[in-house]
Amino acid sequence: MIYKVSFVVQGGGHPGAIQNMEKRPEKGDRVKLGDKFYEIVEVLEIIPSRGEFGYLHATCRPVEE
Amino acid sequence: MSIVPLLKKVEILNSLSEGQLEKVAELCREQTSNAGDIIFKENDKSSELYLIQDGLVGITLSVPEPGTEQSIVTLGKGQIFGEVALVDEGPRTASARCIADGTRLWVAKRADFISLCEKDTSIGFPVMKNIAADLSFKLRLVNLTRKEPS
After folding, report:
1. B2-54: per-residue pLDDT in tens?
2. d(CA A33, CA B124)
3. C-beta atoms of B75 and A10 within 8 A
4. CATH class of the domain whose range is B4-147
5. Which residues of chain A lie closer than 8 angstroms to B77, CB-CB?
6. Quick one: which of B133, B120, B140 has its CA closest to B11?
7. Pairing mode, if any, of strands B95-98 and B103-109?
């Protein structure tokens, strides 16, 4: 399964991102969007899977370095 | 290098057979861009569809203050862009700028892609359906971003 994931960052400091992932993202995972890391705080399935693709939405927060 | 393995992971080509993906692959040429490179500008005439193999591309809109832009979304591996113009033939609705060095793209000319979809509707129908789903997904992201408290 390939997961097409839309990322929204809490606080509005990032425009958001869309990327494909081969592993389903989970709450607590860290993701790199551009040159910064973010922690996933929530993952939702926003539309049902089609074929080999899953469609997820992840809300993230900046990671304190 | 065959790009069929990459194309199998591209959502707009979901459900196409290996043979059909080979036909799509024949339309694509590789392009490498570095951070800061402008791939296309808002309101440019559009003639190509882009697929990101690796790297990041930022999509931006101009805002009323001269020389400034608003970031709309960052696109990464496996994403397509330039598809709005593919569908409606209008000018570019936003600008695309590479934001990571060594970003690898595959580029297909609109005319070639549309011609393939029209000649072979067993490719064209699922591709257009998948493009509609991709645009819907992006619209949902914009809506969710607007709901996020700043």
Report:
1. 789 888 888 889 899 999 999 999 999 999 999 999 999 998 988 899 999 98
2. 33
3. no
4. mainly beta
5. 19-20
6. B133
7. unpaired
